[in-house]
Amino acid sequence: MKKFILTLLAISLFSLATIANAKTIRIGTEGAYPPWNNLNTAGQLEGAEIDFGNEACLRMGVECEWVTQDWDGIIPALLNGKYDIIIAGMSITEERKEKVNFTNGYMTDGARFAVLKGSGLEDMTIAGMDKVNLNDAGGKEQAAIGQLNAAMKGKTVCVQSATIHQNYLEKHMAGVVEVKLYQSVDDTNLDLLAGRCDAILADVGSTIDYMSTDVGANVAFTGPTFSGGVFGDGVGGAVKKEDTEILEMWNAAIAEMLADGSLSEITKQWFGRDISM
Amino acid sequence: MPLLFFMLRFDLLIFGDTGWGDELLISSIMTILVSLSAMGLGIFVAIFTTWAKISGNFILKIFANFYTTVIRGIPELLVIYLIFFGGSASIMYVAKIFGYNGYIELNAFTMGTISVGLISAAYSTEVFRGAYSILNKGQAEAAHSLGLSKFHTFIKVLAPQILKHALPGLGNVWQITLKDTALISVTGLVEIMRQSRIASNVSHSPLTFCLSAALLYLILTTFSSKIFNKLEDYSNRNDIVA
Amino acid sequence: MNFELIYNNFFIILSGLDETLKLVVISLSLGFIIAIPFALARASSFKILSQSVYYYVFIIRGTPLLVQIYLIYYGLGTILFVRESFLWIVLKDPFFCGVLALVINTVAYTAEIFRGGIQSVTKGQIESCKSLGMSRFIMYFKIILPCAFRQALPGYGNEMILMVKSTSLISLITIMEMTGLARNIMYKNYAPVEAFLAAGSIYLFLNFLIVQFIKFLEWKYNPHLRIKT
């Protein structure tokens, strides 16, 4: 009886022993966000950020260990010490800066609405603008937002929760559209196909990747490409506030990779276009 | 129904590099491990809380009652979120109370074990308490008259009998624990639910992987109930059948 | 511990109470009604009926509710046949998908509880019914079912509490009830304890009400067990 209890206790406590290797950097990523980071059928991570991270670690002379984590828990897991840096398509925003420090941006991609072909909403041009940058938004940008709101009034828009896309909808389209929140980007894609969503808002690279699959062939963009403002300033790596050394190492590696063009090569390979910063 | 059959992507379930079969199998083992771990922690904590409830000490009883009422009355998802989002700070704070001053690394397995284990402990406490109330009070009196200390009475006389009566209830708690491990995906632990969600996201086929997950859980619960039935038969082997 | 945050969050989460209550009330009512024929089938002497309900309960109890919810919401949504049929009117809406999953789940557990109640009616009662010449229908309706409900009250109270807790899983299919709102607060403010306290206390209060309600029903329907003054 005693032995039984002791073995149970031992099993439950063996999980507590982990010795961290000083020369290893653990990188947290989502693994469900192609082409940024994704898990393939072999159970391995692949994507633009995976290549970027591995290359950066090579240049820094450290071992890299990748850890996957669901998006909604990705920052708390960092703060819990599960990994040392987040490389997961995370945009640099003021809101997040309150909790974590960001490296310099390494990639940047806009956000755009996507709908099903034949829904009547596709390929809308708003105020003649292709790109809308919300940094120092003036009258033109406000007019574009207003026109988009009028066109999408009463529709259902689906986004991944805890993202800049959710922030945009809550800030600029509150009360105009019905917002639905999902755990991952693919869930929004599934519901767009199923007809539960009239539109989704996600970043351009991710939606293009979905459009290239056979199930996603019926998806089309609509409206302008957004950036800036509530969408943040590019994608950066997130570290805990006290990890200044790791931050500097990564900034150095990013600067190096931007300067010699290897970063733009990686993005061209995965996104089909150069989205390095 | 046959239409449903053809919708399933069996090609995705094969083992090896092009299918998710091997990952699903590994995640099943992870589910078993974290359930065992949580159940172990749960029983360990439950021993103390049951003792608190039956000891007669008023303050201990209030704390134990508060613990079981709150944990059983609040959705498991919220308990898991609190422990995960509350993070290492709270766990280390609690550990300090118990005198452990080291650094506890909170990997996903530990998080999962602690969250599901605390929930499991609340249910196990109720099972132990119920089993204790069935016991013949005469046993404790006889032990006392033989000069056994309170501690020895508990270990040698009461605990084995409590365990025997608690077995059916514990079987139920085990099933609950096993199914609650499906809720810890937020911690990032790759058990059956999380692995099937990953696979369904990558392959855009939720039907195949939800059904696979359901099948895997069904296999685990069926085997568990068979094992518990054998255990119950074994512990009841000396009972007189009228 | 930011008290102002708890106060603000409390009202945000309280606004999700109506979704939670809608889910609970609709699922429990439908579940209660549908479980009665299931329980009768399970307790009957027709092997086919009894076995099929047994397997239904076995499968539902052997799989987590979350898997069932995902299967109904995402799984069925990918089948073109379902999307083009009349079923889509119900299955398109996440609320009704949630209700469907909860009802399927609660029917399984409730049918077992009611079966226990039905089978606990003593043989003596049934024999006296037959000797009085009651038809089967009247025997069930007037004697067995009321007796069974009385026996099932504690078990069903437990099931009601489990149902309230199960509604929190519906937040994972976009319904913004209390847990969904609490999770949203946790993402935005990284204030898990405050959000947890606010949501948890409301759930505890709901469960407290249910326990009191069941106690009242037990008092009302067991006049023979009341202490006579």
Can you walk through the features of this model?
The complex is a heterotrimer of chains A (about 280), B (about 240) and C (about 230). In chain A, the strands form 3 sheets. Chain A has a 6-stranded mixed β-sheet, sandwiched between helices. Chain A has a 5-stranded mixed β-sheet with strand order 5-1-6-14-7. Chain A has about 280 residues and is α/β, with parallel strands linked by helices. Helix content of chain A is about 35%, strand content about 20%. Chain A starts with a helix and ends in a 6-residue tail after the last helix. Chain B has about 240 residues and is an all-alpha fold. The model of chain B has no long low-confidence stretch (mean pLDDT about 85). Chain C is flat and about 70 Å long. Chain C has about 230 residues and is mainly α. Chains in contact: A-B, A-C, B-C. The interface of B and C includes residues 76, 85 and 197 of B.
Question: What is the C-alpha radius of gyration of chain C, as a whole number of Å?
Answer: 21 Å
Task: Give the end-to-end Cα distance of chain C, rounded to a whole number of Å.
Answer: 50 Å
Question: What is the averaged pLDDT score of chain C?
Answer: 87
For the biggest β-sheet of chain A, the strand order reads 9-13-8-12-10-11
Q: Helicity range of the residues of chain C?
A: over 70%
Shape of chain A: globular
Which segments of chain C are poorly predicted (pLDDT under 50) over 5 or more consecutive residues?
none
Q: How many E strands of chain C?
A: 0
Largest chain interface and its two residue counts?
A: A-B, 40 and 48 residues
Shape descriptor of chain C reads: flat
